[in-house]
Amino acid sequence: MKKQLIVLSALASVLAFGQAALAAENVQAENNSQKTASLIEPAEVVQYQVTWNAVSGVANYKIKIVRVDSGDVIVPVTDLGTERVFKAPYLKSNTQYKVWVAAYDSKGKLLAQKTEVKTTAGEIGGIIRWNLGSLN
């Protein structure tokens, strides 16, 4: 009987130790999950907007954006109507882009255009406007 009591006591100690170890492991896993989640949270989103001055007699503007280092067309030639603010899609940070904007009259005649190379900033968040000013 004494032997059984010792065995049961030892078994209870082992079970208690196992539960404590399991609880500690769960807390550690939860902490790691929280750390991992904080590592993969998205950075602030930067939105780039391209603006320019109005052109007299314009019927529509067109825009095109090309990544300089790869030549990838990010925004193909796009008709904007008379809108003078273009919200660009996601642009990679610290990268150069060639932005072309042109103004056309109602008969399709080119009135003015401008091309500028712009560089995106690091991940700072918010809205960044690239103002091209007057089209030539």
Q: Structural class from helices and strands?
A: alpha+beta
Strand fraction equals 35-45%
Q: Give the oligomeric state.
A: single chain
Kindly provide the radius of gyration, computed on alpha-carbon positions and rounded to a whole number of angstroms. Answer: 31 Å
Pattern of helices and strands: HEEEEEEE
- The helix content, as a percent range, equals 25-40%
Structure annotation, total helices? 1
Query: What is the β-strand count?
Result: 7
**Unreliable parts:** 33-43
Overall body shape: elongated
Largest sheet: 4 strands, antiparallel
How far apart lie the N and C ends?
103 Å
Give the mean pLDDT: 79
Biggest sheet strand line-up: 3-2-5-6
Lay out the secondary structure.
Layout: H1 2-40, E1 46-51, E2 60-67, E3 73-81, E4 85-87, E5 96-104, E6 110-119, E7 126-131
Parallel strand pairs: 1-7
Antiparallel strand pairs: 1-4, 2-3, 2-5, 5-6
Give an account of the 3D structure.
With 136 residues, the protein is of the alpha+beta class. It is 29% helix and 38% strand. The chain is built from one helix and seven strands, in the order αβββββββ. It has one helix at residues 2-40, and strands at 46-51, 60-67, 73-81, 85-87, 96-104, 110-119, 126-131. The strands form two sheets. Strands 3-2-5-6 form a four-stranded antiparallel β-sheet, with no helix packed on it. It has a three-stranded mixed β-sheet with strand order 4-1-7, with no helix packed on it. β2 and β3 (73-81) form a beta hairpin. The longest helix is centred in the N-terminal third of the chain and has 39 residues, at 2-40. The protein is elongated, with a radius of gyration of 31 Å.
